[in-house]
Amino acid sequence: MVDAVRSTDELTAMLRKGGEIAPQLLAQADLRQADLSGVRLQGMNLNGTRLDGANLEGSSWVACTLDQAGLDAAVLSNAHFSQCTATGVSLRGARLDHTWMQNSTWQDCDFHEADMTRLAALDTVFRACKLQSALIGEAWLSQCTLQDLDLAGACWNRVLLPDSTLEGCSLADATLVQCAFNRVMAPALDLRGVQAAGLSLYRATLDNACLDGAMLDSAIFDMARLDHATLRGASLLNARFYEASSMAIDFTGSRMCHADLSHFQAVNADFSKVNLKGGLLHAAQLPRAVWRDAVLDDVRRDDAQLREAELWQPAV
Question: Residue 310 above 90 pLDDT?
Fold first, then answer.
């Protein structure tokens, strides 16, 4: 517990002065509305600390614990978090724009209506957090773990998740604008009804994923794995599945006009009632596929020019 004689002003002055501070000094402290811009906190215990409305712009947090801390409406623009752990933190309405996070863990934290524009995170975990209403745009989360997140109906703009893991997450009915989930591990990902034209899922692992009713026109599934994935009734106009692979994928009733399935390898795929007009099946391997009532007008099963280019070898 904090020494009772330490007032908010005294603690603020000590932090702004810098130098060594006892790790327990700030636990349970009341620093609401304090001006702590640019402070450096290392190895600090901030469990239960109240920082609601505080100005923490440009602050640095290294190896700190923030369990049950309060940061509602705090300003954390351009803050840096490294090797921090936080459980049950409230960041409702906080400003986290241009914030950097690395090797940190956020568990059961509340980011309701937090501004996370241009957030950059590396090897960071968001587990069972409330992120559905957070403002997430122009963000980069690489090698991060997003686990057990309900993001149904979320609106993301230009969010990149390279090499990240989405486990037990729902993005049902979300709107994803110019987003890329390249090389994600996303078993059982729920993308039902998502609006995500041009979404890139390059080399993604989407086993048992549900994309029923999704709008994924011009989406990229190149080299993705889609074992037992379902895309029933999805809109996949001009989508690409180049060298993707699958066991028992279900496209029933999908609109796939001009989709590119070149080198697609799928066993027991169901194309029932699919509209594949003008599609490309160049070098596709589709053993035991079901084509009941499929529209296959103008489908190209082999592209001679493309095959010639693929077989070209430079002169010795």
Answer: no
φ, ψ of residue 33 to 5 degrees: the values are 65, 10
| 215 pLDDT above the threshold of 90 | yes
CA nearest neighbour of 246 among 215, 223, 271, 225 = 225
Distance CA 196, CA 217 (A): 8
Residue bearing tokens 């309405």:
93
237-248 residue pLDDT tens: 999 999 999 999
CA-CA-CA-CA torsion sign (63, 67, 73, 74): negative
DSSP run (H or E) holding 304: helix 304-311
pTM of the model: 0.91
- Three-state SS for 9? helix
- From the list 282, 281, 283, 303, the residue with the least C-alpha distance to 291 is 281
What is the 3-class SS of 100-161, one letter each residue? EEECCEEECCECCCCECCCCEEECCEEECCECCCCEEECCEEECCEEECCECCCCEEECCEC
Cα gap 59→40, rounded to integer Å: 6
d(Cα 66, Cα 74) in Å, to the nearest integer?
A: 14
